[in-house]
Amino acid sequence: MSFAQKHAWTIGLFALLLVLLGITKIIQPTFGLTGLESLARAALPFAFATAAMAVVVIAGGIDLSVASIMAVCAVTAAVLMQSMGAVPAVAITLLIGLGMGMINGALIVVTRVPDIVVTLAMLFVWEGTALLVLNAPGGTVHDWLEDSIAGTLLFWVPKALIVMTIAIALVWIPLKRSKLGLSIYAVGSDELAAFRSGVPVGWTKVAAYGVCGLFCAMGGLSLIMLTGIGEPVPGPYLLASVAAVVLGGVVLGGGIGGLLGPIIAVFILRIIRTILTLAAVDPNVTTIVEGTIMVAVVMFGAFLVMRRNKA
Amino acid sequence: MRLALAQWAGVAFPAQQTEPTFMTDHALLDATGVAKSFGAVKALTDASLHVGRGQVVALMGANGAGKSTFVKILTGALKPDTGHVLIQGTPARVGSPAQARASGLVPVYQEPSLIPDLDVADNLRLGDTPADDFLHWVDELGIKNLHLADMIKDLPLATLRILDLARALASKPDVLLLDEMTAALPTDLVDRVLRVVRAQADEGRGVIYISHRFTEISELCDSATVLRDGRTVGDLKIEPGVEEKVVELMLGAKIDLGHRDTSHAKAATKASPRLSAINLAAAPKLLDVSFDLYPGEVLGVVALEGQGQDELFNVLSGFTKPSGGTLHVDGNPKAFGHPADAIAAGLTFVPGDRAEALLSERSVRENIALPFSARMRSWGPLKLRRERERVGLAIDRLQIDTRAQGEVRRLSGGNQQKVTIGRWLATGVETLLLFDPTRGIDVRTKRQIYPLVRELADQGAAILYYTSELEEVPLACDRALVIFNGRVVDLIDAADADEQTLMRAAYGLTADEAGDNAA
Amino acid sequence: MSVSDQVHPTPEDHIPALVRVGRFLGDNPVIPLIFLLCCLVGVLEIMRPGIISPFWFANTLKFAIPLAMLAACQMLTMLTAGIDLSAAVVATVSAFVVASITPLYGPFAGVVIALGAAVLVGLVNGFGVGVARVHPLIMTLGTGLIATGCLQVYQRFVINTGSEIPAFLEWLGTGRTAGLPNGLFLFVPFAAIILLGLRYTGFGRLLFAIGSNEHATKLSGVRSWQVFLALYALVGLIAGITGLLYVGMIRAPSLSLANPLLLPSAAAAVIGGTSIFGGRGSYAGAIVGALILTVLGTLLTLLQMPQGARVALFGLIILGVTALYVRLTDSR
User: Fold this and answer.
1) Is A291–C146 a contact, with Cβ atoms under 8 angstroms apart?
2) Do β-strands B479-484 and B487-493 pair in parallel, antiparallel, or remain unpaired?
3) Contact call for C128 and A123, based on CB within 8 A
4) What is the mean pLDDT of residues C18-46?
5) d(CA B296, CA B345)
6) What is the rounded CA–CA span in Å between residue B219 and residue B421?
7) How far apart are CA B501 and CA A238, in angstroms?
8) Fewest CB atoms within 10 Å of the CB: A250, B40, B313, C222?
């Protein structure tokens, strides 16, 4: 199979993104660097949430607690930065995110309760934890962290896009090349065959949820970098990440897809919002349209899974 | 023939005192006294298997003899309750397939254990298989044009099985376990596989060969170990005429299941059939099945595992759409999109796996009354008196033991099976599709089921009766349809349907070799 | 529910007494739950002697009623192995709509439009779950978000008309008769309908059946999408009615009025012995579960437990009870 065939979906998404950017430019001829920059900034937490969700969906699971983990990480980092430098605070936050994800995974493996139920319950546990850490928006963020995603670099590339690319690539590319990455795909594709091929299924799941937690931590950090403050209430990232994952060509049920497609899908969903805003649509109507698109995308994904299972 | 049966009757089968034909000093694999229970069900009681250097041993047994449990224990997917598995004299470190592999036993399962969404190279990397050796074996086994970048899900089943075998060979195992290796392979590939496997043995490795095909076994194997009712009942050297002995061993001593005078079996010459299938097919397993089922008749279906009978019943009950052929009910062509359509046409299905049909957390009454509420117009208040009468009637007629009240999962297997049948007695039976209704239930319940099936037929019902227990055929059926490789190979009258005849037919032995080669 | 009228009950031979007690309690979860409830009330009395009074009792009932009604939504959907995360939003929508329509077109139109909106959301859920086969969790989460968005848009249109809560809803929500909250006039018939409906209608049977084994119902000729569509529409209606009662009780419609009830409603159903995997549950249990959570809420307030710990605790309760259930059914 040629490269173009194998990545047809991703290429198609990218083309769609370019078309949408073109439409934006037509509606609002002044849409330029600043527009692109704010688009990239707004997409940042969505991109990390989507990356997190994509990893567990590839492993055949789902994590409903992504937004809550992001909230915990955001408030933790904001509190930590009151008393220490940015680098140790970021490092500790990443470790905490990893830990929370692994706790999710371990609970799924040990209790044998389905992933969707465990992560629903953990959604509330982590949400409560975030409120315990900080019961009202607060904390501080070091200025240089905020600056690191503001503005552009190399003449026109938004810094936020660069930060996102580097952060995700640093985790994903080594992972995908490693045997663990292969095991994640194997478990998601066919758990029995993976078990018979000698893959440690339980550990692989724990690891996949751990990586999910790590991306959530990055998402939490990006939240405080955007707002400059730790907000303990989870944002609207759950449904958005599921929709982006499905639109990005990762099949619910596991084994197929990567991170590039879902992240392009994040930008597509974000730019639809920009277009609606530029077209002077009521922002609340925009929310409805967005929600409807997401539900439609997820329905379509479920339909595809049904077809696949029948075949 | 079944373990549950032996348990109930308290009869210990005398193990056939066949001397092990030859035992090498350095047995590669030595499994002795292996037993395994799942709750109250004893899947294995005393299984053993010895494979010496250079030996190909066939592992045989009828459906439900405990073969698959034994394989799971050998490959480390299950832990035995008692007994031991030695590989080259040291206890096998079982616990997971990965560990069994490390101790030298490499299995090739019936379902290819390759990851569908990864390419060939990644699948090799997953199991640390050297690609060069793998490609050598792929070539040796006769697969051309394979690229390491090919996705597994794009490859045909036959190729996948060969790749699975090649991967196993490349890991240089001490003992190779092949489960129905040649099923779904075209003839030229079968020849190559047999040659390669023989060569492996000649190099000093051991092979466990599980198959239903006598022609291959006599060509390839040195000896055959026969399992029955969870124990090893014989070790036979392969020589001309061994088939008869193996069949005899697999059938074993009889338990009296009751008698029936088959001379009264109905002749199949009724004017109009209730149900007729014409060239029915459901690819890939069900290829071409035609039959007529008359009112008042019990038509048996006899087949080894996986010959297309599951697909046949799924098509008839409306679960899957046929890929070819037509179906007539009372002379009218029918196509079912949902089981509700089949039920509307009078076709009711009792699946072999009770778990598929039962609401395990609900009461007997709710289970039996389920079809009453199926249609939207019956969503309103229950007609309790009618329900109590009908359900009571079904319970009485089947003598369902309802002492363990509350949830159906607390009933015995036999009573559970009666509940699944009772559901349709309560609604009224026109055409009943019974799929292995006596699987894993006690002999007393069995003795109740046969007369019931007869009684229903005498009252005008048409019954299609698949069974994996051959001695049931003359007890319950009027005629028996034998299916092999997705096609009807024989139609036998009940009077002639003794077990030997049926077993031979089911193994495609009476049918000409064409049936076998068409695989 | 049993067939005791057909056979003479005979003592079961080989079952130890302890297992039998366990089974009995498993079949009748209400008994240990009522015991737990009494314990909690006792603890409350010890911590704050004199707190238990007829007034306290009536007040607890009053706040437990809307929770118990939303718990009915969760219990009914959980019977079919689903859940309704949009129930609280639907209640909010219904409450807001009735309060904003009443000054314009009168209370009757307000109630009809409010319940119509609630049923509409339910139908969308039913379509997604039954026809498109989206997981109920994702589907109801999505419709909940869309409904919230619609509510925000709607608010902008009616922001100048003001709000008015129909008098009979206030009477229902805040009034008392003979010391007991008037909400019972709504709740008692409601609970009776649910309890009897589950037991004595074909639809009730099918809910248990689909949750217990959807394949088996298909085998018996049930077209499950019909059941899902009807179920989620019904659940939407219940959530809408809950919203009406709740707005009469709180008397201040807002865009997130009933939303804090979502998690406790799911927890109440789970505590009440409803299996989140379907096929098992009772509304009586869910009612006691709602009472327990209301008393527990009082207790946590007395302990000055922060909001975060409460939320986390509810999550842990759901996980713990579910894990326990999985353990119990596995080791049978």
Assistant:
1) yes
2) antiparallel
3) no
4) 77
5) 17
6) 44
7) 63
8) B40
Give the pLDDT confidence score for residue B7 in this predicted structure.
34
Q: Is the ipTM of this complex over 0.85?
A: no
- Please state the separation of Cα C102 from the chain's center in Å: 27
Residue C5's pLDDT is 35
Adjacency order of strands within the sheet including B462-466? B332-333, B324-329, B275-282, B286-293, B487-493, B479-484, B298-302, B462-466, B431-435, B347-350
8 Å CB contact between A119 and A63 = yes
- Phi, psi (deg, nearest 5) at residue B160: -60, -40
Write the pLDDT tens digit of every residue in A25-67: 888 888 778 888 888 888 999 999 999 999 999 999 989 899 9
Q: How far is C149 from chain A (nearest CA, A)?
A: 5
- Kindly report, residue by residue over A168-185, the tens digit of the pLDDT: 999 999 998 899 999 999
In this structure, which amino acid lies at residue B309? Q
Strand order in the sheet with B175-179: B90-91, B82-87, B27-38, B41-52, B231-237, B223-228, B56-61, B206-210, B175-179, B105-108
pLDDT value of position B9: 35
The mean pLDDT of A261-281, rounded to a whole number, is 87
Q: How far is B433 from chain C (nearest CA, A)?
A: 12
- Of the pLDDT bands very low, low, confident and very high (cuts 50, 70, 90), residue B62 is confident
Q: How many CB atoms lie within 10 A of CB B32?
A: 15
Q: Is B392 on the interface with C (CB under 8 A)?
A: yes
Residue of C138, C281, C265, C266 lying closest to C210 (CA atoms): C281
Half-sphere exposure of A274 (CA within 13 A, CB side): 28
Q: What is the SS3 assignment for B39?
A: coil
Q: How confident is the model at residue C9 (pLDDT cuts 50, 70, 90)?
A: very low
Of B77, B97, B115, the CB nearest to A189: B115
Mean pLDDT of chain A: 87
Instruction: Name which of A145-159, B148-162, B167-181, C246-260 the model is least confident about.
Output: A145-159
Q: Enter the tokens of residue B280.
A: 């029915």
Among B98, B107, B117, the residue with its CB nearest the CB of A255 is B117
Q: Cβ of B518 under 8 Å from any chain A Cβ?
A: no
Q: pTM of this prediction?
A: 0.79
Q: Does C141 touch chain A (CB under 8 A)?
A: yes
Query: Is residue B506 classed exposed, middle or buried when 0-12, 13-18 and 19+ CB atoms within 10 A define those classes?
Result: buried
Distance from CA of A249 to the nearest CA of B (A): 13
Q: Do A127 and C316 touch (CB under 8 A)?
A: no
Using CB atoms within 10 Å of the CB of residue C260, give its burial: 0 to 12 exposed, 13 to 18 middle, 19+ buried: exposed
Q: What is the largest CA-CA distance in chain A?
A: 58
A209 pLDDT band, cuts 50/70/90, is: very high
Mean pLDDT of C187-194: 94
Number of H helices, E strands in chain C: 14, 2
Question: Which positions in chain B touch A192 (Cβ < 8 Å)?
Answer: 111, 113
DSSP string computed for C179-243? TEETHHHHHHHHHHHHHHHHHHBHHHHHHHHHHH-HHHHHHTT--HHHHHHHHHHHHHHHHHHHH
Inter-chain CB proximity C222 and B380 less than 8 Å: no
Quote the pLDDT of residue A4.
65
Q: Name the phi and psi angles at B345, rounded to 5.
A: -85, 5
Residues β-bridged to residue B484? B487
Q: Encode pLDDT of B388-399 as tens digits.
A: 888 888 888 888
Determine what percent of chain B is predicted with pLDDT higher than 90: 5
In the three-class reduction of DSSP (H, G, I as helix; E, B as strand; rest coil), residue B279 is classed as strand
pLDDT of residue B265: 53
Cβ burial B181-209 (10 Å sphere, 16+ → b, else e): bbbbbeeebbebbbebbeebbeeebbbbb
On whether any CB of chain C is under 8 Å from the CB of B351, the answer is yes
In degrees and rounded to multiples of 5, residue A151 shows phi and psi of 85, -165
